[in-house]
Design goal:
By secondary structure, this protein is an alpha+beta fold. 19% of the residues lie in helices and 31% in strands. It catalyses: Hydrolysis of Pro-|-Xaa >> Ala-|-Xaa in oligopeptides. Its EC number is 3.4.21.26.
Length: 721
């Protein structure tokens, strides 16, 4: 170990020990008074002397060493920070009360919609507080039995089930598992009848589907294992492989992505339901893809180009023999469905099948029909079409909210969908494709009185006058007196839409008398590609302005005030919170950035981060882009002498999507420069990743901590209710 490493370790170990001797908040009869009168003693975080130069401008990066997730120094820092954070949280008087209520409300049986594969009908079920959903199966209405139980994959419930895919006749299953929340996967192949593992699992698989060709094998995607840390090292050349059952993984054939000409950051392969075609999609960022076709009925058939640029998003929805049905936003920002013959599939030959409308389209197929879902101000409307493009009917949804896709095999006569909104637990409906009737298949067992709450959609002007929709949910009869604890949530990026869906964790917040507001910011996909593009690169500030305007609206209308407002978002939404809290620290009492992209000058150097450049741009591409990123990058805009709102940063030590170094560096900056007494804490979940597959027990703990921290720093000595 070099001298700097010895020095770092010495400082950090001292910090860990100091936490055991009163370095955190001391217990008194009034813990709130303590937080207002006394600053927290944070672990000492060594500053290094790393400086980067961008277009002649030097930019210091004093906490670069925290990017090394494998170092003893970083590990010691994580332990020290968690010690301070959990000491603080343990002194909040109603933290355990919130945890108990979360567990109580979470504890009901949850069952997913059934689906058929081979001789069995499968469904996912969670008895209540199981860390992971269990896959069950039954034959011909017989007794259901456990097929896969991910709760047995690891002792602590941190190994989760990813994709589950069946061979053509349903006799073989391949499923992916994630360990510790990582995006890296293993694929395990089993005989369906005996559940016996058939061969050595495939390893080092990432950002992959599992698409079967008959019963012979399947297509999957991955990167070469990177040098250095697999949790943070850059991965930018994705490859599509074909695995023949029974052959060693080392012999799997690379189908696409192995040459410089085919270098893509994201590659996927999908086999059509009739096993006739393989569709290969490639992308260099999270927006836009090229698309290729291979005729699997001819073993040596060449790849045929459908689109050869990244100007639009296009994918295959369905085929009927040689007739392809494609969904695209090429010259159609809100998407449309087109048809083309597989023999000449270039875009010049496309014919509109279902034309673009003023609302954003999502499409699916099942039972020999097409289903189009449109977002009308972030609310779902669904229509059924036949294969000639004739509209059969609008589907009568149970109310105002969001629905899952209606999809299934062509020979199905009954399809299933779920429906929910911010105050209504999800209910599964069966849909008769012939008469259009929806019937309740399974009601939610959540013990939550939806009738006691209401959701209201409002539109408010952003800084430039653009009207932004927001849905506000709260207890009926609430008094608009500016004193209601409120969480404002946003995302605003990557063409992702925030549509109304129920959450047990959100329900507990509402029960406490809390208001939950969700703003549909630019950068998202609620109004199509134009809405997305209005919040990217040199227009990214629009997203932050939209969020600030949402907060100002809630305050102006007396839903809440700055003393009772918290802002929250995860991933790109974590960036949103970090940017807004550094730009307007006066606007909110609490900031809750989760797994955030917070170092905008270096985000693209980690794992697959370079693929986000469509939304963000990079610091190297131009001096203008560098200056723009530097001007809002949360890590680079924490100012000494400023009083920032109480902040609880959350991340996972196995997050290889948005590496935890973003959060580490932001926490270090805030702790070093905070002028006020509000706490600047970071909660680092161990053996956890970006969020998917997180065990229920960890999720409950995390929300209890977030809500307790939020209410405590708003001044509540007891739960508000």
């Amino acid at each position: 170990m070099n001298k700097q490493s010895i020095f770092l370790t010495s400082i950090l170990v001292t910090s860990v020990l100091a936490g055991c001797t009163g370095n955190s908040i001391k217990q008194t009869s009034d813990p709130i008074a303590v937080t207002q009168a006394q600053k927290i003693s944070y672990p000492v975080t060594l500053k290094g002397d790393v400086v980067d130069n961008y277009f002649g401008t030097d930019v210091a990066d004093p906490y670069r060493w925290l990017e090394d997730d494998r170092s003893e120094e970083t590990s010691a820092w994580v332990k020290a920070e968690n010690k301070v954070t959990f000491d603080y949280l343990a002194k909040i008087p109603y933290r355990d009360q919130l945890k108990s209520r979360l567990a109580e409300l979470w504890n009901y049986e949850k069952v997913g919609a059934p689906f058929k594969e081979g001789n069995y009908t499968y469904f996912y079920k969670n008895d209540g507080l199981q860390n992971q959903y269990v896959v069950y199966r039954q034959k011909d209405g017989g007794t259901a039995e456990v097929f896969l139980d991910p709760n047995t994959f690891s002792e602590d419930g941190t190994t989760s089930l990813g994709q589950l895919s069946f061979s053509k006749d349903g006799s073989i299953a391949a499923y992916a598992i994630s360990e510790g929340g990582s995006d890296w996967r293993k694929i395990i192949i089993i005989d369906v009848e005996t559940k016996k593992v058939l061969e050595t699992p495939l390893v080092d698989v990432k950002f992959s589907g599992i698409s079967w060709f008959k019963n012979e094998g399947f297509y999957y995607s991955s990167y070469d294992k990177p040098e250095g840390s697999e949790l943070s090292a850059k991965t930018d050349q994705h490859k599509l492989y074909y695995h023949v059952l029974g052959q060693p993984q080392k012999d799997d054939k690379i189908i696409f992505g192995n040459t410089a000409e085919q270098k893509r950051r994201y590659v996927g392969g999908t086999v059509t339901e009739d096993n006739r075609f393989l569709l290969i999609s490639g992308a260099i960022s999270t927006s836009g893809n090229d698309l290729y076709l291979k005729d699997l009925s001819k073993p040596d058939s060449p790849l045929v180009t459908i689109t050869d640029n990244f100007d639009a998003d296009t994918y295959l929805l369905e085929n009927e023999g040689d007739k392809l049905f494609l969904v695209t936003n090429l010259n159609a920002p809100n998407k449309k469905i087109v048809t083309v013959n597989a023999s000449a599939p270039a875009s010049k030959n496309w014919t509109d099948f279902i034309a673009e409308t003023k609302y954003v389209l999502s499409a699916s197929t099942g039972g020999g029909y097409f289903f189009t879902e449109y977002m009308v101000d972030a609310i779902s409307k669904v229509y059924q079409y036949d294969y000639q493009g004739k509209q059969v009917r609008e589907i009568n949804l149970p109310g105002i909210g969001s629905t899952s896709a209606l999809e299934g095999d062509k020979d199905e006569s009954i399809l299933y969908y779920s429906f929910s909104n911010y105050k209504t637990p999800g209910t599964i409906y069966s849909y008769n494709i012939d008469n259009g009737n929806s019937d309740v298949y399974r009601k939610s067992g959540a013990k939550f009185d939806s009738n006691a709450y209401e959701s209201k959609q409002v539109f408010y002007p952003s800084k430039d006058g653009t009207q932004i929709p927001m849905i506000i949910t709260y207890k009926k009869g609430i008094e608009l007196n500016g004193k209601n604890p409120t969480i404002l949530y946003g995302y605003g990026g990557f063409n992702i839409s925030l549509t109304p869906r129920f959450s047990v964790a959100r329900a507990v917040w509402l029960e406490q008398g809390g208001i939950y507001a969700v703003a549909n910011l630019r950068g998202g996909g609620e109004y199509g590609k134009k809405w997305h593009n209005a919040g990217i690169k040199l227009d990214k500030q629009n997203v932050f302005d939209d969020f600030i305007a949402a907060a100002e609206y809630l305050i102006k209308k007396d839903y809440t005030s700055s003393d009772y407002l918290a802002i929250n978002g995860g991933s790109n939404g974590g960036l949103l919170v970090g940017a807004v809290m550094t730009q307007r620290p006066d606007l909110m009492k609490v900031a809750l950035p989760a797994v955030g992209v917070l170092d905008m000058l270096r985000y693209h150097t980690f794992t697959a981060g370079a693929g986000w450049a469509y939304d963000y741009g990079t610091a190297e591409q131009s001096e203008e882009m560098f200056k723009y990123l530097q001007a809002y990058s949360p890590v680079h805009n924490v100012k000494a002498g400023v009083s920032y709102p109480a902040t609880l940063i959350t991340t996972g030590d196995h997050d290889d999507r948005v590496v935890p170094a973003h959060s580490f560096k932001f926490a270090a900056e805030l702790q070093a420069k905070q002028a006020g007494n509000a706490p600047m804490l970071i909660r680092i979940e161990t053996n956890a990743g970006h969020g998917a597959g997180t065990p229920v027990s960890k999720t409950i703990d995390q929300y209890a901590d977030i809500y307790a921290f939020t209410l405590f720093n708003m001044g509540f000595k007891v739960l508000p209710k």
